């Protein structure tokens, strides 16, 4: 050991000039990057070594790439703090493809038989339709297809392969949920900072460039945290509130129940300061779904006793109307009195006239962001969809929308069937929460395009594969195991 240490010391002395030269070169390159590019250069100086380490880790363990992808999905909203048009969305797609490539390279330890799962075939049907949509003769600019096909079907398909074949464990699922709750808690705090302390310069600039039109109403700010917009932020906060409430009901340890309840309260107020009224329907749809899926009259009665007074106060009283956030939540239950909702109905009537002879839609990439960028004079780009399903209707037609809704229904029914077959209590409670949240997000996507936005899309795509294949992690309860052992002994 002493000889080895001495040898290493001598080697360092012999090559000291080389290491010193290398250090000087690195310092000069870092100085040039920072001097030329400023903050971006500093980030590059720090980011390149980190990126190389992450790259090696992804090739060694593909699951690591998936976890990095999840975390970066939450950070993508910070692009408003980076000057210029940085294509971080494309960077995330590259990371996802890299993780998929690593999965193939590590193919010997992957369970490729999992690709026979019914949920994967549902995704293949939808993917095939979106690929055929590339040849839609109505599309004014075909390359725009790629920009929306990613959120429509490609990302979901790639994530499905990674989640299905990788050796994911219960511990991995726990880490996914922990990261989800952690980022959601930070997002709520950031929303409070915007609402009660003030906005950063980059956020003020974002509002001045057009965001104020939808995020400052009657002089009140709709907090958007570090998400793409307030609609995305509010819907995500409502979904995580639902997860925390279900974990509160399902846990038996009082310390954990108190922690989940406190977290639910913080994140729910994050939803409130977003001013996103329609996000309430994540809870209205998801909470009853959870109660029904429990198939327990006691749980259903307890859930109704908790929810009924809250709904009665919102529907039949004006308690709390002096608080702007509570007033906004209450107006979600009276959509026919909302001017913006009526405008949406008028827009949908115009679209109905336009699409009546276009069963396959105007082509993927003709509305919303890609439409405004590549074909701004096209009719489909003139009317804001204001809804994930309306956007699908515009771009893929009534045929595409029907296939997509059938796929969502199939995923939900598969999830219900698989969860009801489980024996492991922890797995049952976790998959119930993920399934109920998925239902809530699917419902609220009628009013917000959140199913195609980071980070909701990332989380929903992953959880949909988890609860539709949850039997992979099921373990029998102690009583079931003992009964099986007794039966085996009797047969012997």
TrEMBL record:
The keyword Ligase applies. Pfam families: Wzy_C (PF04932). It is a multi-pass membrane protein. The chain crosses the membrane at residues 17-34, 40-59, 66-82, 88-107, 119-135, 147-168, 175-192, 230-249, 261-287, 299-320, 398-420, 426-446. Its main location: membrane. Residues 263-405 form the O-antigen ligase-related domain. It is found in: Membrane. It comes from the Bacteria. The keyword Transmembrane applies. Keywords: Ligase, Membrane, Transmembrane, Transmembrane helix. PANTHER family: LIPOPOLYSACCHARIDE BIOSYNTHESIS PROTEIN PA4999-RELATED (PTHR37422:SF13), TEICHURONIC ACID BIOSYNTHESIS PROTEIN TUAE (PTHR37422). This is O-antigen ligase family protein. It comes from Spirosoma soli.
């Amino acid at each position: 050991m002493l000889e080895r240490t001495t040898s290493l010391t001598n080697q360092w002395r012999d090559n000291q000039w080389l290491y010193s030269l290398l250090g000087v070169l690195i310092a000069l390159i870092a100085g040039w990057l920072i001097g030329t590019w400023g903050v971006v250069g500093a980030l590059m100086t720090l980011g390149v070594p980190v990126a190389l380490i992450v790259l090696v880790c992804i090739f060694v363990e593909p699951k690591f790439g998936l976890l990095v992808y999840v975390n970066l999905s939450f950070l993508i909203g910070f692009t408003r703090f980076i000057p210029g048009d940085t294509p971080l969305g494309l960077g995330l797609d590259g990371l996802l493809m890299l993780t998929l490539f690593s999965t193939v390279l590590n193919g010997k330890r992957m369970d490729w038989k999992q690709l026979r799962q019914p949920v994967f075939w549902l995704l293949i049907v939808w993917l095939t339709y979106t690929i055929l949509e590339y040849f839609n003769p109505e599309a004014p600019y075909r390359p725009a297809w790629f920009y929306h096909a990613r959120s429509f079907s490609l990302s979901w398909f790639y994530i499905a392969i990674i989640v299905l074949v990788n050796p994911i464990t219960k511990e991995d699922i726990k880490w996914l949920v922990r990261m989800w709750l952690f980022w959601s808690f930070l997002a709520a705090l950031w929303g409070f900072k915007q609402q009660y302390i003030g906005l950063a310069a980059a956020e003020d600039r974002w509002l001045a460039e057009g965001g104020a039109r939808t995020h400052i109403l009657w002089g009140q700010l709709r907090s958007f945290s570090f998400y793409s917009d307030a609609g995305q932020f509010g819907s995500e906060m409502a979904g995580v509130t639902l997860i925390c409430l279900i974990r509160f009901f399902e846990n038996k340890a009082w310390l954990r129940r108190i922690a989940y309840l406190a977290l639910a309260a913080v994140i729910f107020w994050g939803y409130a300061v977003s001013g996103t009224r329609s996000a309430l329907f994540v809870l209205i749809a998801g909470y009853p779904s959870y109660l029904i899926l429990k198939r327990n009259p006691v749980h259903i009665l307890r859930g109704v006793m908790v929810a009924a007074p809250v709904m009665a106060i919102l529907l039949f009283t004006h308690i709390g109307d002096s608080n702007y956030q509570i007033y906004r939540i209450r107006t979600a239950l009276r959509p026919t009195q909302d001017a913006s909702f009526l405008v949406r109905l008028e827009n949908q009537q115009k679209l109905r006239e336009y699409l009546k002879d276009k069963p396959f839609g105007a082509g993927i990439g003709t509305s919303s962001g890609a439409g405004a960028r590549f074909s701004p004079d096209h009719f489909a780009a003139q009317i804001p969809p204001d809804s994930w399903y309306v956007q699908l209707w515009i771009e893929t037609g009534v045929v595409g929308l029907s296939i997509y809704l059938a796929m969502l229904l199939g995923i939900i029914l598969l999830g219900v069937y698989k969860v009801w077959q489980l024996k492991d209590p922890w797995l049952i409670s976790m998959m119930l929460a993920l399934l109920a949240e998925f239902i809530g997000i699917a419902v609220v996507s009628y009013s917000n395009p959140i199913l195609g936005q980071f980070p909701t899309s990332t989380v929903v795509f992953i959880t949909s594969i988890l609860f539709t294949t949850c039997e992979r992690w099921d373990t029998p309860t102690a009583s079931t195991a003992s009964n099986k052992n007794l039966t085996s002994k009797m047969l012997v």
